[in-house]
Amino acid sequence: MCDDIERVQAALLGDWEAFGAIVRKYANVVHAVAYEVVRDYHTAQDIAQEAFLKAHMNMHSLKNPEKLGSWLYSIVRRLSLNALRTEGRYTSLEAAFDLQTGQSVEELVLQRDVRRKVFDALNSLKEPQRLASTLHYVGGFTIKETAEILDISIDAAESRIRRSKDSLKKELFVLMDGLMKNDGFEQNIEREVLRAIVPRIATIEIPVFDLRRAVEWYGDMLGAKLQGEWNDEWKSAMLHFQGGSGAIGVPSIYLVKTEDKRRLTFKNTRHGYIQSVIDLYTHDLKGYYRFLKERGVDVNEIDWEQEPNRQGFGFRDCDGNSFGVCNVELTGQGGGSQETPKAHPFVWRVAGVEIPVTDLKKAVAWYTVTFGMKVLGEPEGDWEAAMLYLDGGERLGVPNFYLVETQDEQRLAFVNSYANVTHSVIDFYTANVEPMLTGLRTRKVKMNGASGFFDPDGNSLAICSAVHRGQVSNY
């Protein structure tokens, strides 16, 4: 199982695609093993997902990567037996299939009957034959791989599979093959597992001089609400957006009081203008422009009659941090069906974060490897910027990353003058902090304190497992 060894090694270094490949390979068999114990479709789904999450969290403890299959098998068996001892609400196999949508009644009945026949037949076998058959026929593993997972000889595995085949009707194997090809379970569970572990932007940290003034400004101009009751002793404040299911708390805004004069802004030296760092999404571009202008915000001048199709504009907050606003929907950022938030008449969410880099190609390679990001589109000619999005499932990509090649030395970093530490600007959420930090250290990434680090260009980032309302589910 040399593929398993390579995938485990890559996953330990933070390669999300490698771990996704592991999930796809073992999804059906992990689900089948769980179902064999608990005899409940949805419970088996939950156990399968939990098994992969535990595997990801503890993969560093796997001393022999070639034993990945048997290691996963032991995890899912243990979780399944624990679930069997725990009282809970279970969904029958029949009810589980009745809940599916997008299929005709005839298709639902046929698929339900096929699955019932397959599982009933397997469950009629004695345990040694049942386990071997589940791995071989449901999981799609070779006899050699089945032997390795069960830690038995190839002859023993072959004997068990032969005996089960003698006991089962021939037409069952045709049904089983068709069921596994059309089930799609491996894609579904891969999406859900990666949804839980792939880093996403949880917080953007912003330097300000007067914290109270900044909190009020962000509330009035962006609709970002203060978390908790104001305290005059605060040196920082957490704010979050709210409104639609895709907008709540993604990401939060963390205002940090500091005497450091550096701000989140940089110059695009190729075109000679100030680049926005934090891009907001609005459904009404012209309306928001008028809203900010009427309130004296520093907004770049636009002649809407000359540029009627303009897709965005820039402005600064009360401390000089650079913002932009657009009405363009990008990969994974939701659709027009989202309701306008009650918290603010114009602002829906943070749509993107723009990052200055010296060498665009190197930066793209680093971010794609480190965070599993995908590049939106293909480079054409003299590529000067790249849009990346977080891809652990179709809902990710909020906000996108926009890497901008520039010779400006300004980077996204600032010093907290009260604590005398370099603050991270972009905080990524992941359920498993230590494995990712281990991967970063292994790759000799420059670290900054316990969970902070710098990208190759000196932009300050961090990893955290702390979440705020709405940042994980419904997103």
What does this structure look like?
- This protein has 475 residues and is of the alpha+beta class.
- Helix content is 42%, strand content 19%.
- The chain contains 15 helices and 19 strands.
- The chain has helices at residues 2-12, 16-38, 41-57, 68-85, 93-98, 105-123, 127-138, 143-150, 154-167, 170-183, 185-197, 211-222, 285-294, 360-371, 433-442; strands at residues 200-208, 225-226, 236-240, 252-257, 266-268, 273-275, 278-282, 312-316, 322-326, 347-357, 373-375, 385-390, 400-405, 414-416, 421-423, 426-429, 447-448, 452-454, 460-464.
- An eight-stranded mixed beta sheet has the order 2-3-4-1-16-19-18-17, covered by helices on one side. It has a seven-stranded mixed beta sheet with strand order 8-9-7-10-13-12-11. It has a two-stranded antiparallel ribbon with strand order 5-6.
- Strand 14 (414-416) and strand 15 form a beta hairpin.
- Helix 4 (68-85) packs across helix 8, helix 7 (127-138) packs across helix 8 (143-150) and helix 7 (127-138) packs across helix 9 (154-167).
- The radius of gyration is 26 Å and the shape is elongated.
- The two termini are 36 Å apart.
- The relative contact order is 0.12.
Which spans have pLDDT < 50 for at least 5 consecutive residues? 89-110, 243-249, 331-340, 392-397, 469-475
**What is the alpha-carbon Rg in Å?**
26 Å
Tell me the number of helical segments per DSSP (H or I, 4 or more residues long): 15
In which range does the helix fraction lie? Answer: 40-55%
End-to-end gap: 36 Å
Number of strands: 19
Estimated share of beta-strand residues: 15-25%
Structural class, from secondary structure content?
alpha+beta
| Major β-sheet profile | 8 strands, mixed
